[in-house]
Fold these 2 entries.
Entry 1:
Amino acid sequence: MNEEAGWGYDLFDINMERQELGDCDQTYDSITHHKIVICKKEDKMQKSDLHTLLIYQRSYFEILEEFFIGATGCSFDKFCNQSEFTEAINKLGESLKNNSKRSSVCMASFETLAKKLGKLYSQESMECFQSVKNVKCCKINLGGSSRFLETQLNAVKKTILISDIVLIPDPVMPWLESKREHEKFKFVNIIEAVFFTLHLKNLHSQDFDMPPFLVFPSWEKSLEENDTQTKNETNQLIADFFSYYANREIISIEDVFDYVDSDENNFLTRVEEQRLFISPGGEVGEPLRDALRNYRDDALQWRTPGFNEILAHAPQGRIVLNGIMERVQPQFHLFENANELNSNPLLCIPAQAHYFSLLSRMNNSRVSDFAGSDQSINVAISALANSRLDYLANINDEQLVELRKSDENVKFRNELRGFITGLPTIKIEDLDYTAAEVCSHIESLISTHQKEVEILNGKYKAKHMKSALIAGGGLAVTMVPALAPFLGAALPLALAAMGKYSSDKFDESHERKVLSSSMLGIFALVKDASKNR
């Protein structure tokens, strides 16, 4: 399915370096049994905050899992492979047509989901959101979106390698808190969001001092529809966007519509020159004619007949304006979450990164509040989002858990931060350049690791050969007893050699385990595996 259908955006952030835990106590939550680190410093994370997050997330995933089984008749890990969701959901739809009883159970599961998530939001969401704000660590925030698909899931898994916690705005509740009247496949989109979100479930290890990710309540659609301040500030962001890139005389959202209607040709020219319109699934800089065609085609597939009827009678200027507003509006929530949760947003889809870059250059109060980001960490996360490192998403959950338990994410983050700060200052602002440099650095680290493995192989091959030659004398004694009186001294030497061989094998096994279970060892393994696919 199109990962950008509707208002689908996957943006994510990072900010503060994890605090050193030199003056801390460790205890265990009596309900969840998760390890809790309680720091005595001023910026410590309170035990109650972590407890709140863990309890909230446990309840959230229990609700999603119950729903998915009710809606599909099986658990998420047995439904299909991640890349086969479209085929599997079509097959499910066909089966429901011929099974009224199963269809009734499926539809009832949506009502239960709405009721239980609504209750969770009403009772615990504010406390959860406040606890997220209280967490002082390296945060990454997957920005406001109604979509959480394979690309977003892979982005989260890669980002866990460098962050302390990835914050994910709830991708399910937005489908329930708003009518989404122009979306053709609302129920399918809900199942899809739940399916991919549940693939994070196995990363709930009880041994973490904090969870590697948190799906937090965001209320984005409710705020868009009902909150006056959100409406006003979003409209102002859109107005400032067109004022900066199209017409300096624009002050308000009303001015935007007046400009588009009164001077459509100039508006469309400015849009194409400034690369302001990217269709769903399109590329930065695509011709406006192609972008318009792609936008209409996408709407025919994913939007309702009523929405397409509106498009059919709308002038080109209004269609382009609507497409750009659909791109800009979710970015408001991105900046808002970054400011509220003290986290830096970054993006893993080029088109969305392009809009973030456009907005970041503007003079807007919401954007200006976000000025104090950690550029070196921004670059590191941008590099992880690069397609050159896609193989890192193939690290399995068990390996991720072990890496997190040994704080390899912190070591890796510090390694990249040190490299990035050593780059020429003038280049740091060029994310494309610096991300490419970081990718090359990571690949260089992997190559260095592989050379260490080769050195290890040579080292122990020589040792084992020497032990085998010594043991060979003793073997001759046992095979030819008549020679024993003449070679008797070789027997204890051979036994000692065999003991040395066993000792060397143990040391070799240990060193191999250390190398293969390290961050770079796992990187090398998944990189090699990706070549053979």
Note: The first strand starts at residue 11 and ends at 12.
Entry 2:
Amino acid sequence: MSVTDLPRRSRRRSRSLVAAAVALALLLALGGWWWIHRDDDTDAVRRLGQQIAMDLRAGTVPDGLRVDDRDAAQEHLDAVLAGMGRLRPSVTVGAVEVPDGGDTGTVHLDLTWTVHEGKAPWRYSSTVPVRRSGDSWTGDWAATVLAPELGEGEVLRATRVTPERGEVLGDGGETIVTRRPVVRVGIDRGQVPAAQAGSSARQLAEAADVTVAPFVTAVESAGDKAFVEAIVLRADAKELERVRRAVPGIAGARLVDGSMDLPPSSGFASAVLGRVGPATAEIISADPQVRAGDVVGLSGLQATHDKELRGTSGFVVEAVAEDGTARDLHRLDAVDGTPLRTTLSINHQTAAEDALADVPKAGAVVAIRPSDGHVLALASAKGGSGQPTATLGQYAPGSTFKPVTALAQLRAGATPGTQLQCPPTITVDGREFKNYDDYPSGRNGAMTLKDAIATSCNTALIGARDRLPADGISSAAAALGMTQTPTLGVPAAMGQVPARPTGTDLAATSIGQGEVVATPLSMATVMASIVAEDRVTPVLLPGATTAPAKGGAPITAGEAGQLREMLRAVVTDGSATFLGDNPGGPVIAKTGTAEYGSASPPRTHAWMIVAQDDLAVAVFVEDGSGGASVAGSIADRYLGLVRR
């Protein structure tokens, strides 16, 4: 049956169904076209966003954005970015918005600037309005695409925020190293013609007493506007006046006021504190937090504790207007360095260095406060060519070692009154030992242990050696802290004593010769232990962990009292009577003249250990002719200076 054969109502219903089906098909076709073209628009806008992101990462005006004069726009963008150095942002495309059937849209960009490696970056978002342009999409370029907060005529500038370096503190919290005024002496290449630069450099080098050739080379090879530094002088340096007089007559020479982290005087505890200065290439490559031009610790405590002293730098990104005014866009504050506390005393260290001022060879003064072991002075003479003699100079201690031998005798049953014999010479296994050259002949013969220490009779102590157990002397040295492992926080050594010497080795050990070696630090520790009536561990950094001394029973109060009695006799009736008039409490001491080498007569080093009240001191002078005359005079001068 055909349609025409259907009833009229049925035919109408069929036509309606057909029309509905056609409409639905048309709607589906149009919807599919719309969805397809809607996806095409979104993809096209996203591709535009990705092109914008890629170009911004490269520092170029995006190709997909319209601009009247692309060269001028790029020149402006270069100016905006100039203050950021070589930094460029990481840019990614976020959301892309294209309204249904519309001809406009929005690209959202996420920008990240890693201004300083290892620090929180600067993050923000930017939006780019876009519009359909024929078969493609575009937008308009403006610097706000890169940084929405930029105002008209403003450019970006990233600046490192340098922290304040931590101070180095001393005994009682007194400030040792802090910012002090300096004057930078140099040649300003912008103020002198290139042809004359070398001549100016030579004149300034001679006036400032710096090596001429390297400075001339540095000035001649510097840029046309560079300031080439010849030397940095303290504002109160005596030689600065000579330089000031010379500068006006030297083309391009300049004096620039500044400040540096410095101790109270030039050379103050330099072997211990070290120095600061511009970071070397090696330091920069080893530490990503350090940049060229940073001031870091280069030696001593300044180097070993550089990270806490240096602090952590920050940065600021600014919008800078044409008139130079700036406002912050993003800031990460610096964290200032942490002060480093030491036990050094400005008074004691200065007195020690003054007392050593005329020593032509290696020498040292070490001062310890027995009650807490704090090291008050670690001074090394300039004659030691910068070597830390106070902490690393190891030499035979000679007769300053006799308190150790005396303690061994006490522990073997002797008392200060025990009778000994002091002959002019004594022979052990075919080797002859004698007293020092100026030993008074009237003091030979029978004497007490106390007298033997007071007069420093070698033969008496050597003759009593057989009373000692095999490890008697080494155990006594350990009891007084002489052979412990130092934990000062700076390179240091203590003493070495044969464990169980015999024969001539035992004889030499008894008088601080042979294989016995000591540092000024170790001998000051011996005297500090006698005063403290306990084994002292020297401390330089009170906040650091200090390993307790090991080996042997520490000295007791009774033993310490007997040793002080004997060492007091050195001042009242022995080789250090010149110390008897020092103001303050009773002085105890022991002089020492240590022989070394094979020359005849033998060469000698001069030693002295001394204590008064809560202060123990060791003095050493290389190639000194006598403990009392050379080291003793330095000790006497030092005590006088610290008591002023």
Note: The two ends are 137 Å apart (CA to CA).
